Amino acid sequence: MKSSIYFLTALVLTALTARAQEPDSTRKAFLAAQAIIKEQSEKDHKQMLEQLHITALRPGPSGNPEAPNAANVDESQASPYTRLPDPLVLKNGKKVTTAKQWWQQRRPEIVEDFDREIYGRVPKNLPKVTWEVISEKKEMNGDFPVITKTLQGHVDNSSYPAIKVDIELTLSTPANSTSPVPVMMSYGFRFPPGFRMPNPPATTLPAKPEPTWQQQLLAKGWGYAVIYPTSYQADNGAGLTKGIIGLVNKGQPRKPDDWGALRAWAWGASRALDYFETDKAVDARKVGIEGLSRYGKATAVTMAYEPRFAIAFVGSSGEGGVKIHRRKFGEQVENVAASGEYHWMAGNFIKYAGPLTPNDLPVDAHELVALCAPRPVFISSGSPKVEGNWVDAKGMFLGGAYAGPVYKLLGRKDMGTMEFPPIETALVDGDVAFRQHSGGHTTGPNWPTFLLFADRYFN
Ligand code: GCU
């Protein structure tokens, strides 16, 4: 509870300070820009529906529990499906019994389904990225001296100079370290001027902040990095003809199986890892990835598709992340298929909000976790009381639990139970871990537990 409060407060204080200093014109400019983005996103969404020959979609439920069309939060109504796709049964109906069959036959089948229908295909010939260290400075983070590098990954845009793309990244490693260190890289949110956080109740203001996640890493002698996904792919449909997706498409709209923002963000994380492989301060075999919410989804996608990431800390990823798509609880496929969120996914994903249904999906989220196997994945959620039910904590737990058979086939350990545990129970004995902390929409309070889990692999 305490830590989530600290986290929230830090956010709120930042937001309130920003608001106090913010002139009205900044807020107005922000709202005007948002209106244009919304209109352009709706237009792009519409052209994708035309490509898919879809005329109508089922609307998703509301995230507001008071609304007449509020999302279902009644567990007895949550499982309209009778079965999930089996990660260990081939398309031809044969059972997978060896690791070789997994790697050579079944895994490629699952990847193909995720590529075509869910997250989209990453283009074959992607431009090169050249990393530049913009600045390097020695500084203190709490009690810890660190070397912080600010980096830019310049994307070669000679094929289409009208679009310029730079990946923004920072890396901090302990200044006193004599050997390469493990690094956790976080997907960092960046809010435009004029953006406002919702206000939590004033009674939750704490007295002093706990060690930040960065300081917890430094205390172990590890480093941290932050990558800013919106520096190379915008978080809206209007941006799909720009950023790395737009650059490769030469400013043209996507085809239905082209990559969406989640895969684009994951591509950037892989390029950051390319850089880490060249930096002597980093042990590139021990780099993990962390993210919350939409970046929790991106974290799961990154881990599934990039075998060089050693561990993942998937925060409140919800629908489109590791929550079972077929579960009727909290956010639904229909929400993600709508014009505000479809850009995360392949255009083809929209089909499952009409005429198809989530039950028609060829894969489900447990198979995304299975694609990460045998590498360790920690699935994190907040409390329904504070975070709400939109993310569907149990749906995310099941995403990890049903991936278990694949971990076991590969000689690793599953979560150890199919029973959704009480809040604050750490399921960390297997290679897929789960913990629901008692705070809000943050990974904050789960960092200490995640680090105990990560210790087993990194130390
Ligand atoms: C919305 C969205 C979620 C997403 C979240 C976030 O709530 O519906 O899918 O995870 O925003 O990124 O904060």
Automatic annotation (TrEMBL):
InterPro entries: AB_hydrolase_fold, GCE-like_dom. The keyword Hydrolase applies. One of its GO terms (molecular function) is carboxylic ester hydrolase activity. Pfam families: GCE_fung. Residues 258-411 form the 4-O-methyl-glucuronoyl methylesterase-like domain. SUPFAM superfamilies: alpha/beta-Hydrolases. Keywords: Hydrolase, Serine esterase, Signal. Residues 56-86 are annotated as: Disordered. Residues 1-20 form the signal peptide. It comes from the Bacteria. Gene3D superfamilies: alpha/beta hydrolase. This is Acetylxylan esterase.
